[in-house]
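Entry type: protein chain
Record version: 2
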Amino acid sequence: MNADITIRELTAEDYSEVSQGYQRLHKLHVEGRADIYKDMEQPLSLEEYVSMVQSREYITLAAESKEMFAGFLIAQRRTTPENPMLQRNTYFYIDALYVSGSYRRRGIGRALYTYLSGLAEEEKCSRIDLKVWDFNKDAVSFYKNMGFQMQCYNMEKRIKK
């Protein structure tokens, strides 16, 4: 990991930076799939954010470069439900990984993911999952470079209205 990058837990005081990142991520999704996502100013409320930061269910990480906020990663701890057809697995699910524009391609995303991966090993998780839209080519490329591979195909056929 780059010596200039520090990973730490998010705090309530990070809300402004995380909220801005969520707004940018949401805008990307609205632009890519306006038929699914609604345009809105604040996709993450302060209450939701504080609840995630305080919950053991979530892993909430901040990346700093030279003590400046550079990005964040929010993931959930999940376990497959009891089901006679499925193996019981504990895994992490990445809800959001965001790197501020001026910090992109400097190892911030890789540092956040590497830190999460280490936690997954410590907690004996079987995998890390996420959902990425096909229109988000940069994210698809990043995750492939991190070793992610296609798990299943979620397909659709749009119906004309």
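Comment: DSSP finds four helices and five strands in the chain.
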